[in-house]
Design brief:
Blueprint (H helix, E strand, L loop, with lengths): L2 H23 L8 E7 L2 E8 L2 H6 L11 E11 L12 E7 L2 E9 L19 E8 L2 H5 L7 E2 L1
Parallel strand pairs: 2-3
Antiparallel strand pairs: 1-2, 1-7, 3-6, 4-5, 4-6
Length: 154
């Protein structure tokens, strides 16, 4: 292997480490996100949209709270088994797994884990492949009676 290839490969590895470090441990500044409205069973939410890798990695980390009718909507574009954690979270949430425009499952009353290291945080996974996730304040799934199969309009 020639030296140019070695330097090229090392450069890519260093860049990947820098980006990974930034995502895991870097700036807690909230990324500017688009907003939209979303409705489940006539209950309306104002949601920010996390559609980039950086926005999805940031999630709700570092925020103090969400308004009663606010949420964060993760758009993935393709179906998959996307897992979530509570890294740097300051308040509990409900996670709503969405497939297409239908609720596929929930992780309710998910609590922050400030005492855990990044490597020991609980991972929350959907019951089936999904393409969208909605994070809202803890207890709202139960309060509004959301159920698997409910339609999500956004």
């Amino acid at each position: 292997m020639n030296s140019k290839k070695v330097y090229w490969i090392l450069g890519i590895i260093v860049l990947a480490l820098i980006i990974g470090g930034y995502v895991l441990f870097g700036s807690r500044k909230n990324v500017d996100l688009k907003t939209t409205s979303l409705s489940i069973n006539g209950i309306n939410f104002k949601v920010q949209i996390a559609e980039t890798m950086l926005a999805r990695a940031q999630g709700l980390s570092g925020r103090e709270n969400l308004g009663e009718d606010e949420g964060l909507l993760f758009l993935f574009g393709t179906s998959g088994m996307y897992s979530f954690w509570m890294k740097d979270m300051k308040f509990p949430i409900d996670i709503i797994w969405i497939s297409g425009k239908t609720i596929a499952g929930f992780a309710e009353s998910v609590n922050p884990e400030p005492e855990k290291t990044v490597f020991s945080l609980t991972s929350y996974s959907p019951p089936q492949p999904i393409d969208t996730v909605l994070e809202i304040n803890s207890g709202l799934v139960k309060q509004y009676g959301f159920q698997i199969g409910d339609q999500v309009v956004f």
